[in-house]
Each structure stands twice: as C-alpha cells, then as structure tokens.
Amino acid sequence: MAVKKDTEGPILEIDNLSISFFTRLREIPAVMDFSCVVQPGEAMGLVGESGCGKSTVALGVMQDLGVNGRIVGGSIKFKGTDLSTLNEDELRQIRGSEIAMIYQEPMASLNPAMKIGKQLIEVPMIHEGLNEADAWKLAHQVVEDVRLPDPERILQAYPHQLSGGQQQRIVIAMALMSKPSLLILDEPTTALDVTVEAGIVDLVKGLGKKYGTSMLFISHNLGLVMDVCDRICVMYSGEAVETGTVVDVFDNMRHPYTQALFRSIPLPGADKNTRPLVAIPGNFPLPHERPNGCNFGPRCDYFVAGKCDSGDIEMAMFDKKNDHQTRCTRFADIDWMADAALADNVSKTEIGEVVLDIDDLKKYYEVSANALFSSKEKKVVKANETISLAAHEAETLAIVGESGCGKSTLAKVLLGLETATSGKVQLLGQDVQDVMIEDRDTKTVSSIQMVFQNPFDTLNPSMSVGRQIIRALEVFGIGNTEPERKQKMLELLDLVKLPREFAERMPRQLSGGQKQRVGIARAFAGDARIVVADEPVSALDVSVQAAVTELLMEIQHRSRTTLLFISHDLSIVRYLSDRVVVMYLGHIVETGTTDEVFAPPYHPYTEALLSAVPIADTRIERKRIVLDGDIPSAVNPPPGCPFQTRCGYKTQAGASLCETEVPPVRILEGGHQIKCHLAEDILAKMDPVIALANDNSAKPKKAVKKTGKKTAKKTAKKATKKTAKKASKKSA
Q1: Which of 165, 525, 713, 722 would bridge with 472, disulfide CB 3.0–4.6 Å?
Q2: Could you tell me the pTM of the whole model?
C-alpha cells in the first residue's frame, strides 16, 4: 500500500494510541489513549516531563519501537494511510522521504567517518533517485538554506570539524533534503547555547514555511514551544491531558498539570523572596504503578476523592472553536484565575563582606598545534583574560555566557583544579591562585565546593547514598567517630529534604532530582562558605528544577553561603541572582545587579543573550537579535574587542577602533560596568529587549560615567566593592 503524495486532509492523525513495552516480568504501558491531529503546514508541540511518553509517540509515528515495543491499541495515520498496514519496504521509502526525524544529539545522527557532503547526497540519491551531480547541487542549496557559511568547506568537512550548532544545522539540512511532509524534532536544541538555540528556532520556523512542512516539536521548554508551534499537546504519565492552540492553552489553561508546569518556571514577575516558584509535590508515577482515575491526582491541589479516582477519565471539550480539550473532571469547578497559594515571604538575605576577591586573573593553556602527532609547535588557549570580580557572603552571583566563554575554567581555578597564569585569587583572605587542590589544607578545600551539571555522573554507582556523604565527612574531618558522622549524614539528608531511609539506597534507585539533592548534601558536608553551582538544574525537568532551586535558596538563607551560579539560562538567572557577570571569550563584558544587567543600556552581547531567551508568556514582546557566526576560538581570538566579529553595533562605535583596541570598562550609575567602545548617546538610546506587549512607557536611561582606559579596571573594582552590598539589597 503506497502513501498518497498529496492530501487535502490532515498530515498526521493519531487516534486513541496505546503503546506498551514488554519485559520478562510485565507489560509496561508507556502511552495510553493518546490522540492528536497535525494539519498541513502546522507545527504541533508535545510537552511534558521526562518519561511522559513524548519520544515514544514520535517513535510510534516512525514505526521504530524496537523488539519490545508494540502498538496495542488505536491507530497512526499518515496522509490517511494507517502506518501499521505498511510493510518494511514501504516504511523504508517514507522514512527520511515523507517523514523525517531530528534527534536531540546531532552527533548520534552523523557518521563520524564520512564527509558531510557524502552524507547529505545519500538522501536524495536513495529516496528520489537523483544522480550524484544533481544531489550535490541540492546539498549545496540546502546548506545555504540552513544559513551555514562557506557551503563548499562545510560539504568537505567531517562532523568533528563543526561546532554543535553547525552539526545540528546539518542534521536539519539532511532531514529537509527530500522535502518531507512531516518533520519530527525531539528536543533539537537542548544541548545548544541559547544564542545558537535562537538561530535554530528561527531556522526551523522559516524552513517550515518555505517547504510547507508540518512539524511535531517535542520539548520540555514551554518558551520554545510558544516560539515555534501553532498548537500544543501537554502530556503526563503517558496521556494527553490538555490540547489546543498555544495561545489558548497558555492563557486559558484548564488542567492542573499545565498550571503546575507554569508555576514551576521563572516567568517575568517571579521573585525568590515575594513570589517564589512552586514545585510540583510528589514524584512522577512509574508506568506500572499508576493510580486509579486521574494519573495526576496524587500531586494535584484540586483532587477530590470519589470524583478524581473513580474510573478512567476521558478528554473533555472546553472550547470547541479552538478545539481546546482537557482530561480533568473538575475543570469547570476550579477558579483558574486565582493566584497560587504563596508561601510565607522569605526575608531578604543580608549581603555580607567580601569572601572571594579576584583581581586581573588570567588563565592560559599551552597546547600543541597538532595534538594528535605532538607537534613541537605550540599555541596558547586564552581561556580567561583580565578577570576581576568580588563575591560577598550570602550573595548569589551568576556567571553567564556561551560555551567556551571561560565560565568553567574560572570555576576550576577557584576550586584548585587549575592554577592561574597570572593575577590574584583571594578566598576568605587567603591567596589560592597558585595552590592546587591537593596542596590546599582541609579547611580551604571544604570552604569552596561544587555542585555539578549532571547528577547522573557525580555519584559512585557502587556506593550507597549514605556512604558517599559519610566519605565526604571523613575527607573534611567532620566528626570524631562513625556514629557522629552517621548522625551528621542523616542531618544532611534532612537539609536537602530526602527521607532518611534513602541513606541505604543506591544511586540507580534515585531519580535525577534526588541524585542532585545528594550532590548538594555532599557539597555542604564540610559547611562550605562558597558553592560553585555549574548548570545545576539544566539536566532536570522544570518541576524538579523549581524544587532544587528553592532548596539551594533555603540552604543559602540558613547558612549564609555564597553561591556562584554558572548558567546559560537567563530566566533562572533573573529569578535567582543578586548580581550578574556576563562573560564572552574569556572577558567579563558586563557586570552589575540583576536589575541593571536586565535593563538598558546593555553590552551588545548581553542584548543578544537576552533577546534569545524563550519566555512562555504571551504578554511578552522581545526584540529579536540572532548573532551571526560562532564564538571565535580562544586559540586565535580576534584583535581589539573580543565581540567585534559578531557585533551589530561595530559601525556605530567605529569599526577600526573595535578591531584594534580592547574596550575600556565603563562605569555606569550604581556601579554597573560595561566593557564597550559605544558612545554614551548610543548606550542611552537602547530600548528594552523584553517588555510587556502594548507597554509604550519609556524607561529611564542610566547615565554613563566616563572612565579612562588606565583607571578603568581600578575604578571598576573599587565601585563593585563599595556598591555591591547596597545594590544587592536593592536587587533582592
């Protein structure tokens, strides 16, 4: 049976779909009673927490469920044809030709041993029978369509010679080679920087319109879904719980889970003191342990016994005009306009004295020009350049920037995993810039600890949770006897809100959020004064992010810990931080209180970062700035301003000046610092990047204070120390 090339009806119809995976012990129902329709040229978003069944639906559409997966109910129709009726040869013809899929990790889709061009031309040669010459022309055209520079060089390159963003663009190009009718995107931007993500999102939207391609866009990022999709389907525990147009669902949500998701993400207006995030209570149910009735019932604020747990709950129509449906028996009884019950206001943390002082720090690495063959020729990687900043007791200082900007290198120097090339690092009044971790005394090591990005890789899989925390206590010299250390370990589990019985569990028995809590407990085992949190919530679901974020804030408030929060997610940075440091190619290009950095005037790079942040709020309008090109190599940084190769203001500042001289640090009102050549009047005229729709009120501009090049660094540091405490209080 052949699939019709053109159809006037829906591209994709999924009706009451149920998918199970079969093990030796039991049948595991992964997706149940799932329905959705994708019209020609429409983008449908699938959102929900990890394990809700989003990717399983996508694999069902591709008919690629593996040996254990099976469709046990319902149907999937593509252009009117039931895909389950097609044989393997017929499925092979439509995969990649009519239906294409883009995966989360681009390198998993590319052959590392084949040049990009060879991989691209395979698609039209296999699916459309094009000859090699015509396939090369098409490949060249598609590489141009995905806005990659120098298509000839790209086509002759191997995958490892491209950046992550370029690899993802190639995967998109490969998917579009045969102009598919349906494009499935499974978390296509998760591993990318926010600026690269913005470019990919704009690219996908533009190509969807150009080729008339329908899309099934899978993501946990509600802001991205709003940017890309026309309609949305919210999934929970294998079921669709709400579906409708993006605007209608965002503005008139009618399922408690959808509402809970929005309350757990840092939208504009959230405040860690007066309007904290609300984490979803409880845990996601395992597929074979789902409750009776509503799957979300045990975690729902509106649960009513006898009504919500009395039988299977079907999708109900809320708004027929927008085909807005919800799987909630009480949607008509709930006051959806009521604000969440707020927790008691947290008193503002009093910012204390300087505990970390960095002055003119540089960190260079010497590497072989050809590391594979150990060439005698050496090159220098300039990872950190003239870094000067101060962090205070009980302060949250965010460090933001793209991958390769030097954030993690700075963290390594602070922790003693690397030593500084030059400059000073004072930790609690002690110079540590030249002292490796093995040469530091126990008190210094315990005073600065780290919470890592991936909780799955930071725990020993063969050691129980309790034993891992006790081991940290032993290293830090906490407790004189084993019973004392065990008691302290149990108190640390209490601190991170894990049940004490978790001490006997192995890491494999914990969820991602629970593992991250163990990592936090271990970091605080030695009563750390400073905690470096390197993307601590980026690998977690949004509801778990909220819980872990609030946990960090609660511990900081109690123990007056200084938190260095490294992140590329500016939404969480705005919610969490007192002050913000923006880094680019090893330089600090802007620093100030959170309010100062998030309002004009901006450094041009900060402006681009802010414009790229996806915000799940229909009231927000953003000025869109997509940066051209990739961040330059730290081995061969550009002369002059490090940002000049990608800056849209260069002609206004004077191209020759930007290309030859490193900018001075400008000190603005309140100690706000910007490292830029732009004149005062240009900075003063900058408009807000993020604003409420129809809000034409002009915001006051900050005055720019002139600072000479020779005194800029000294003045900047002096201003930071004098004003940080006052400004941090104001920001909080």
Answers
A1: 525
A2: 0.86
